Amino acid sequence: MSAAAESIIRASGLKRTFGKGAGEVAVLKGVDLDVPAGRLIAFKGRSGSGKTTLINLLGGLDRPTGGSLTFDGLNLTGLSDRERDEVRRTKMGLVFQSFALFPLMSAYENVEFLLRISGHPSKGRKEAAELALEQVGLKARMHHRPFELSGGEQQRTAIARAIAHKPKLLLADEPTAELDSKTGLHIIKLFRDLVTQSGISVILTTHDPAIMEIVDQVYELEDGQIVVQN
Ligand SMILES: Nc1ncnc2c1ncn2[C@@H]1O[C@H](COP(=O)(O)OP(=O)(O)OP(=O)(O)O)[C@@H](O)[C@H]1O
């Protein structure tokens, strides 16, 4: 790789306004970002500063009302909804605060099912699901259902599900918010290991100051813009 790392995300003047007329709320007011690939990145900012709104735009779950956004060199703002869905399905993984697992399926079935609906060929699906569960340290418990797993193990399952198709970018919105601080730290260390070992890019949002020590870079959002980068 060249000295200048390639970008996984580039945003320029990114805006997201909700509502119309007198009820209009400008949440993102021109976000400029250049996120190098293969790093662990955190967005921080007070509640309501727009972190989730920004993550949703980066993941193509929502469309900006202004500005431009590229993912892995691809202009996301120029794509149709269907094309954006396809990019997300094949090249991104999403992790949420609430884990969002299917309660009647085992950890393995949760991972395998997502591979199936995202079009992964049947050949190799079992291996891909098992490898992802192994990467998150859950292979020994993969036949348990979510209610038999701890919160940390449930979040590991959700992470396995998000990385099984080998995405380039993993987006995690407050992935540790439902966990105690020690378990949350283990989850962040898992993201750290995934970035180091597989070269995936991870962007997460957090309020937890302990996490800031572990990530490569922190971007702080304030009043709809990135105000600090370190
Ligand atoms: N669909 C929507 N319609 C109107 N306002 C919205 C919508 N989505 C978000 N907002 C507003 O945008 C602002 C930013 O919300 P967002 O969830 O992005 O913040 P956040 O930084 O993730 O907050 P938290 O840390 O509490 O999760 C909030 O004031 C919220 O009310």
Characterization of this structure:
The strands form 2 sheets. A 6-stranded mixed beta sheet has the order 6-7-8-3-9-10, with helices on both faces. A 4-stranded antiparallel beta sheet has the order 2-1-4-5, covered by helices on one side. It has a single domain, classed as P-loop containing nucleotide triphosphate hydrolases (Rossmann fold, 3-Layer(aba) Sandwich). With 230 residues, the chain is α/β, with parallel strands linked by helices. The protein has helices at 51-58, 81-91, 107-117, 125-135, 151-163, 181-198, and strands at 7-18, 25-36, 40-44, 66-71, 74-75, 92-96, 169-173, 201-205, 217-222, 225-229. It is globular and about 50 Å long. The site of adenosine-5'-triphosphate has 12 residues, from β2 and α1. Adenosine-5'-triphosphate (ATP) is lined by residues 18-19, 25, 27, 45, 47-53.
List keywords for this structure.
230 residues, alpha/beta, globular, single chain, Rossmann fold, four-stranded antiparallel sheet
CATH-level-2 architecture:
3-Layer(aba) Sandwich
**In the CATH scheme, what's the topology name?**
Rossmann fold
Order of helices and strands: EEEHEEHEHHHEHEEE
Question: Would you identify the regions where 5 or more consecutive residues have pLDDT less than 50?
Answer: none
Q: Estimate the mean pLDDT confidence.
A: 92
Give the total of beta strands. Answer: 10
- Kindly give the count of domains: 1
Total number of helices: 6
What is bound: which ligands? adenosine-5'-triphosphate
Q: Please write the CATH class name.
A: Alpha Beta
For the termini, the CA-CA separation is 23 Å
Rg estimate, integer Å: 18 Å
Q: How helical, in percent, are the residues?
A: 25-40%
Strand order of the largest sheet: 6-7-8-3-9-10
The general outline is globular
Q: What do we call the CATH homologous superfamily?
A: P-loop containing nucleotide triphosphate hydrolases
